[in-house]
Design a protein that fits this description.
With about 450 residues, this protein is mainly α. Helices cover about 65% and strands about 5% of the residues. It is built from 20 helices and 6 strands. A 3-stranded mixed sheet has the order 1-2-3. A 3-stranded mixed sheet has the order 4-5-6.
């Protein structure tokens, strides 16, 4: 890995020297053999004035592949420097689904300008894809697929694939449609190749296929492809008409984005303010964006923490009499917060994978109560020794009971919040670890000192 980085640095140095010498021929020869992701990485690491030089040297098809790999800030920067004709060529080479992604991440005015540069058929196609709800399968699909008819022969179908398959996103699977373009079946290419040339398509059909409705959420497409081990998924409307396909590479991007979004929300970061594609690249994310993505939740949680101080003040009489109680407060509330965060993480992940639905909340409640009780008793036993050493049996009794109650409260809170957020149509990942920890601080402090009041007065 170290050798690879060293070689890369040498190559980048050579690229810079060629730019300084204005040796465009050798510069082009040096970079066009690189894979598109490596060229994109090189462009992003270059100074702004050098980026456009390298990009303009790329052949038409390669430039579109490289453009697709760039982050949104670099894309916008390049678009501001390219001619309309160059932009038009790039947009024409981009697959429809990737073109839609580009339009989504750019400002509205820029998107409108780019749409006007497209030929009329491509513009209609782009507007149709953009017309579907955000995060729907319609935004993700591509209309570039191969379809055949059930009355065709194998030979005719293969000839059709040879003719139209070059522009398709994939030909691993072809689709059988009727005259109204309703989906009847999906057939792997291997099955067609192995069949006799004179055989009719209908004879090798089983009419069993997995498809997804165009307005469904992108995550549902990812779950279907994971469940049935698919590399391509047909997209239909409510009448069963075939509209497009979603391929596994598109779904992998969705899974990565959703996972990043969930992880940031779990830790109380707002990724939208920095850009979901940039939040994972801290070196390239502007400081102001990182600040905005983190400050909102921190301010909210800061004001929530004031409640903890108010509760402590409410019990200052018992605290003054038994000062040793304060020494156990951090471990009690931290353990409750940690237990709650564990519960929430498990529930959120299971929800994301489609393993747990809203209807399962009651089953999970019973299960979590039992697990929480076992955890609480274990933690209570663990803290009992220190309770005896520091405060004797009376203080130990308070600490152990409080620990059991706090762990149970934390676990149930962590389990319940994702269900509550889902019920109110919010992302369950909003039940973040800092939120649960802060709530555990408030409730745990109240429980602890209430138990102390009851047992020590």
């Amino acid at each position: 890995m170290a050798d690879e980085k060293f070689v890369k640095k040498l190559l980048e140095k050579e690229i810079l020297e060629l730019i300084e010498k204005k040796d465009w021929h050798n510069l082009k020869e040096a970079i066009i053999e690189w894979p598109a992701p490596d060229i994109a990485e090189l462009i992003e690491e270059m100074k702004e004035e050098y980026r456009i030089i390298i990009f303009r040297l790329l052949p038409k098809k390669l430039s579109a592949e490289v453009f697709d790999e760039l982050n949104s800030i670099t894309k916008e920067n390049l678009l501001s420097q390219l001619t309309d004709e160059h932009i038009k060529n790039i947009l024409s080479e981009l697959p429809p689904d990737e073109r839609t992604d580009l339009f989504e991440e750019l400002p509205g005015k820029v998107t409108q300008k780019l749409l006007n540069l497209l030929p009329i058929p491509e513009r209609k196609e782009a507007l149709q894809l953009l017309g579907y709800p955000a995060n729907s399968v319609g935004r993700l699909m591509t209309p570039d697929y191969v379809a055949i008819k059930k009355h065709w022969t194998i030979e005719k179908s293969l000839q059709h694939i040879r003719e139209f398959g070059k522009n398709a996103e994939t030909i691993n699977v072809v689709y059988v449609v009727d005259n109204d373009w309703k989906l009847l079946d999906d057939i792997p290419l291997s099955k067609l190749i192995l069949a006799e040339p004179y055989e009719i398509i209908e004879r090798i059909m089983d009419y069993h296929f997995i498809a997804i409705e165009v307005h469904k959420d992108q995550e549902e497409a990812a779950n279907l492809m994971r469940k049935y081990d698919l590399i391509v998924l047909p997209v239909i409307d409510e009448d069963g008409t075939l509209l497009g396909i979603v391929t596994v590479d598109d779904v992998l991007n969705v899974v990565e984005q959703e996972h990043t979004k969930d992880m940031t929300k779990i830790f109380a970061i707002t990724p939208e303010t920095a850009g979901i594609e940039l939040i994972t690249d801290l070196l390239k994310t502007p400081v102001k964006n990182l600040y905005k993505s983190r400050v909102t939740w921190l301010i909210f949680l800061l004001f929530m923490d004031f409640f903890t101080g108010g509760i402590i003040q409410r019990f200052n009489e018992i605290i003054a009499r038994y000062v040793v109680l304060v020494t156990f407060l951090p471990v009690l509330v931290d353990t409750a917060g940690n237990a709650g965060a564990q519960s929430a993480t498990l529930i959120i992940r299971s929800m994301a994978l489609g393993k747990i639905k809203m209807k399962d909340w009651f089953k999970m409640l019973g299960k979590e109560i039992f697990v929480a009780l076992l955890l609480g008793l274990t933690m209570g036993l663990g803290i009992s020794f220190m309770g005896i050493v520091r405060g004797g049996f009376r203080i130990c009794k308070v600490v152990v009971i409080s620990m059991v109650l706090n762990v149970i409260t934390g676990c149930l809170m962590g389990m319940a919040l994702p269900f509550i957020f889902t019920k109110f149509k919010k992302d369950p990942a909003t039940a973040s670890a800092p939120l649960i920890t802060t709530l555990a601080d408030i409730l745990g402090t109240a429980i602890y000192f209430s138990v102390a009041m009851l047992l020590l007065k």
